[in-house]
Design brief:
alpha/beta; TIM Barrel; Oligo-1,6-glucosidase, domain 2; Immunoglobulin-like; 3 domains; 8-stranded parallel β-sheet; 5-stranded antiparallel β-sheet; Glucan 1,6-alpha-glucosidase
């Protein structure tokens, strides 16, 4: 088996709460995932990234962990997890666990102990001060010991103190517990925050961050070929080298968000800007230019925190399928490891939220309150949440055209998108021209074609709305092109077509002066380019 198996792999993110409900309580669960393994096998993916399944009060949908060693009863039992792990392994699918080590729930035993007294053995597992330092909102007063504790997220998610060696040992011991079970790695939530130093006003990329990651690597996953991907909103291509250069022995890769931030006005995701293809090209090219011996890329269009890509950048109307395929072709043929978010392969869309009662997401509720206090109207706020709320990605997976989309027979924890009647897995699998089969073919290409891992990337200068690039090895050249707009665009070149790779429309015969149709995308092998 090739070392760094994850370079030729495609990872599929499952948000368990919304994937498939096996016991009709309205919440997706582990047995529901096991039930749908054949579907994932048909798609062709190599590994499932599971959003948190650990015991949790679910203040932030499981990203507030109260016991790292237990499965939350909402999702099933540890025996269910063991069965999923075994059945997935039997059909060649690995499991990657989502892990939150920046903070815990305030219901975690460590925090309950820490609150008891200032000299409790777990006190220093968290960050305490007599008075808030810096941002007041990041501190909550605890009357039992008359001190404030630090939290970058909600008060129910106290931050761990990574400067404490005993805490770090406990984290590594827990990580080894899961690795010993047979999982294939971790996605590490907000990992760029663990080196924080609140007294110095440092919350991200703290001075000891990479020291901690090296120590973690040595103590846990470093000895074997595991996939480790760090969520790092602050990361840049230069910083990515620190995380994922093989000789540094930290992580396999990070999630870099430069491409998505091209639509964040003033760096604020709530101020959504339209797709800017020029900026998108610039952002992606910066990451693609990284030498693979210096850093490895992750390639993604969505996750549990992001809007649906066809609603965010594509055309969720008449060109929904075509625009979904265009983004898939464009991203999957770059250098890096592709990640698919559940339902992306169906072209699932944002939910038409009309009021706050339809939204569960903690972040969205906090945003609503803040903006209401600033004087915005409810209608103005809901319009923004309709575009950007994290619950757009969390509505139940659409399996069938039935009323509850085959997700459950109970009352779903979030309302099923009304377009499930048209957009669902049954329909997609039965249609050989569906988005599903474009993804299936892209995954097959990733497995078979070494150039996808090895070839250099070269951005081609084009009109603003066309995103085109070359992938080149010493002996072969490939052209990938997409019109990311609803109007025809012209493309001129001297390339000569050799073989057809994949397309969402008819392949062009001549590449001299092409009119590229709205949302048309294709990849061709061309006569070798020097």
């Amino acid at each position: 088996m090739m070392k760094n198996w994850w370079k030729k792999a495609v990872i599929y993110q499952v948000y368990p709460r919304s994937f498939k409900d096996s016991n009709d309580d309205g919440v997706g669960d582990i047995n529901g995932i096991t039930e749908q393994l054949d579907y994932l096998k048909k798609l062709g993916i190599d590994a499932i990234w599971l959003s948190p399944l650990y015991q949790s009060p679910m203040v932030d949908n499981g990203y507030d962990i109260s016991d790292y060693y237990k499965i939350d009863p909402l999702f099933g039992k540890m025996s269910d997890f063991d069965e999923l792990l075994e059945k997935a392994k039997n059909i060649g699918i690995r499991l990657i666990m989502d892990l939150v080590v920046n903070h815990t729930s305030n219901q975690h035993l460590w925090f309950k102990e820490a609150r008891k007294s200032k000299d409790n053995s777990k006190r220093d597992f968290y960050i305490w001060r007599d008075q808030p330092v810096g941002e007041r909102r990041n501190w909550t007063y605890d009357s039992s010991t008359q001190q404030y504790y630090f939290h970058l997220f909600s008060p129910q998610q106290p931050d761990l103190n990574w400067e404490n060696e005993e805490l770090r040992k406990e984290i590594y011991k827990m990580m080894n517990f899961w690795l010993d079970k047979g999982i294939s790695g971790f996605r590490l939530d907000v990992i760029d925050l663990i080196g924080k130093q609140p007294d110095q006003g440092v919350t991200v990329n703290g001075p000891k961050l990479h020291e901690y990651l090296k120590e973690m690597n040595l103590a846990t996953f470093g000895a074997k070929d595991y996939l480790t991907v760090g969520e790092a909103w602050s990361s840049s291509p230069e910083l990515a080298k620190l995380y994922s250069s093989p000789n540094r022995q930290e992580l396999s890769m990070v999630f870099g968000f430069w491409h998505l931030l091209t639509s964040a006005g003033n760096g604020n995701k709530w101020e959504k800007l339209p797709l800017n293809v020029s900026k998108l090209k610039e952002a992606m090219a910066a990451w693609q230019k990284l030498n693979p011996n210096e850093a490895w890329n992750s390639l993604f269009l969505g996750n549990h925190d992001l809007p649906r890509i066809v609603s965010f950048w594509g055309d969720e109307g008449e060109n929904r399928e075509k625009s979904a395929k265009a983004f898939a072709i464009l991203f999957h043929l770059m250098r890096g490891t592709p990640f698919i978010y559940q339902g992306e392969e169906l072209g699932m869309t944002n939910f038409p939220f009309e009021n706050l009662s339809e939204i569960n997401d903690l972040e969205s509720h906090e945003y609503f309150t803040d903006k209401k206090n600033e004087g915005k109207t409810e209608a103005e706020i809901i319009k923004i949440l309709r575009e950007m709320s994290r619950d757009n990605a969390r509505t139940p997976m659409q399996w069938t055209s039935e009323q509850k989309a085959g997700f459950t027979n109970g009352k779903p924890w979030l309302t099923v998108n009304p377009n499930a009647a048209e957009i669902n897995a049954n329909q997609a699998v039965s249609d050989s021209d569906s988005i599903f089969y474009t993804y299936q073919k892209l995954i097959e290409l990733r497995h078979k074609e070494d150039w996808l891992v090895e070839a250099d990337f070269e951005l081609i200068e084009t009109t603003d709305k066309i995103f085109a690039y070359l992938r080149k090895t010493g002996t072969r050249s490939f052209l990938v092109l997409a019109n990311l707009s609803k109007s025809p665009q012209h493309f001129q070149s001297s390339y000569v077509k050799k073989n057809e790779i994949i397309s969402n429309d008819n392949f062009p015969n001549l590449l001299t002066d092409l009119e590229i149709k709205p949302w048309q995308a294709f990849a061709l092998e061309i006569e070798n380019v020097d």
